[in-house]
């Protein structure tokens, strides 16, 4: 009885992306089946060898019955690159308004949050996606082109690169190139980036690397909700919680691909070592259930805080986004009651970035859910509450209006400070 009760309370805490695990709208959606994914496999299998240029579209098809009006929803497979510079295929989505456009359309590129590394977890392969991206209709009504990468290795063959900034940014800018190459899109070179949770990490890295990766494109601003910005402070507080089971397996799979000196066996428990290769490839619903059960039984993913292990700490610091320059405006939305991306970490981001001269506007939101699942639901609801502000902010950037920092505003949550050991 105790385990079952704890399980019910903890299960919601495994949400680290734009998907609420115990969400009525998600549960009522059609469950992805193995047969459904097998039917999609040919679309997501790229030619071998893969040749072409980043952003080149390999193939595209309409997404049937997508709940938008006045626009077309399309699944795309396009060329991107991995961190070593090798050509890789990424899945994604491109949405184009039906109304005629006078001149080129502006582009909004979305970077999604943690979803799990399995094929069915890729947003363009999942029927859960509409519940988590309600802003698409607004973007279509405004006449923009919307593009959303899955990231390489998620839903496509090959290694995934979870929370690896350069890889995430590469996929985002190449999704903009794919949108420009999409027949009839009239997508121009001016774009904004929008991201939630892990996708906030991706979006900020795009802000830093955009000119290096795609000098022909013009990024006008970055807007994020509940972004994973301060990796070390976040892990210091979450490593021995259920969140460790949620994000730990994906990090353990991906980071050693980029940092060969990282050894997961050095930081995981026997239970973690046994489970993480499988958990990483489960979507968050299933991985969260398994991890919540382990946590309720007294098992943790990590045997020690990875941030205290020099090799992992160095990788963590390298993957923490730096403050963006004043020329790249940023809108950050953070809820006080977020139990996944903790508010004190983004209070620290506000403090550091404002001190560094970033053109940062931070919107602090209150408690966005109630009950025993509130801290997890609040994380998801940050995106749902913030997207009207984000779309307004993006429209102002496209209209050439100057972004205004609110760095003089004192955050309602004290910035994270390390505790004495």
Description of the structure:
- It is built from 14 helices and nine strands.
- It has helices at residues 2-10, 24-27, 34-44, 129-132, 136-141, 165-181, 198-213, 231-238, 242-258, 270-279, 284-296, 310-318, 343-355, 374-398, and strands at residues 57-62, 71-81, 87-97, 105-111, 145-149, 187-196, 218-225, 330-335, 360-365.
- The protein has a nine-stranded mixed β-sheet, with helices on both faces.
- It is globular, with a radius of gyration of 20 Å.
- The protein has 421 residues and is an alpha/beta fold.
- Helix 7 (198-213) links the parallel strand 6 (187-196) and strand 7.
- The longest helix has 25 residues, at 374-398.
- Helices cover 38% and strands 17% of the residues.
- Mean pLDDT is 91; it is low at 1-32.
Summarize, please.
With 421 residues, this protein is of the alpha/beta class.
Keywords:
nine-stranded mixed beta sheet; 421 residues; 17% strand; disordered N terminus; alpha/beta
Label the structural class: alpha/beta
* Topology as a string of helices (H) and strands (E): HHHEEEEHHEHEHEHHHHHEHEH
Strand order of the largest sheet: 1-2-3-5-4-6-7-8-9
Shape: globular
Give start-end ranges of low-pLDDT stretches.
1-32
Helix content: 25-40%
**Mean pLDDT value:** 91
The largest β sheet comes out as: 9 strands, mixed
Distance between the termini: 35 Å
Percent strand: 15-25%
């Amino acid at each position: 009885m105790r385990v079952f009760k704890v399980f019910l309370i903890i299960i919601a805490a495994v949400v680290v992306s734009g998907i609420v695990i115990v969400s009525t709208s998600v549960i009522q959606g059609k469950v992805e089946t193995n047969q459904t994914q097998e039917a999609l496999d040919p679309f997501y299998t790229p030619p071998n060898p893969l040749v072409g240029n980043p952003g080149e579209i390999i193939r595209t098809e309409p997404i049937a019955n997508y709940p938008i009006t006045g626009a077309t929803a399309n699944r795309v497979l396009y060329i991107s690159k991995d961190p070593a510079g090798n050509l890789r295929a990424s899945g994604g989505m491109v949405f184009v308004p039906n109304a005629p456009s006078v001149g080129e359309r502006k582009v909004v590129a979305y970077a999604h949050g943690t979803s799990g590394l399995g094929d069915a977890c890729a947003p363009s392969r999942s029927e859960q996606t509409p519940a988590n991206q309600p802003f698409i209709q607004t973007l279509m009504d405004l006449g923009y082109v919307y593009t959303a990468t899955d990231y390489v290795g998620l839903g496509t063959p090959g290694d995934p690169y979870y929370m690896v900034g350069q890889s995430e940014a590469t996929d985002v800018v190449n999704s903009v190139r794919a949108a420009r190459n999409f027949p009839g899109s009239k997508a121009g070179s001016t774009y904004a980036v929008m991201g939630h949770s892990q996708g906030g990490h991706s979006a900020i890295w795009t802000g830093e690397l955009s000119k290096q990766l795609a000098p022909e494109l013009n990024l006008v601003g970055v807007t994020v909700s509940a972004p994973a910005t301060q990796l070390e402070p976040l892990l210091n507080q979450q490593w021995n919680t259920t969140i460790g089971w949620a994000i730990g397996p994906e990090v353990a799979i991906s980071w050693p691909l980029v940092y060969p000196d990282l050894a997961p066996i050095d930081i995981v428990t026997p239970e973690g070592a046994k489970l993480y290769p499988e958990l990483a490839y489960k979507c968050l619903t299933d991985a969260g259930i398994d991890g919540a059960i382990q946590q309720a039984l007294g098992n943790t993913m990590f045997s020690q805080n990875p941030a205290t292990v020099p090799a992992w700490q160095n990788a963590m610091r390298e993957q923490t986004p730096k403050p963006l320059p004043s020329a790249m405006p940023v809108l950050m939305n953070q809820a006080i009651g977020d139990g996944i991306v903790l508010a004190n970490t983004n209070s620290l981001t506000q403090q550091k970035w404002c001190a560094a001269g970033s053109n940062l506007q931070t919107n602090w939101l209150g408690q966005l859910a109630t009950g025993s699942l509130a801290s997890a639901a609040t994380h998801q609801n940050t995106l749902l509450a913030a997207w009207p502000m984000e779309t307004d902010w993006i429209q102002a950037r496209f209209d050439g209006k100057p972004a205004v920092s609110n760095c003089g505003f004192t955050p309602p949550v004290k910035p994270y400070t390390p505790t004495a050991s």
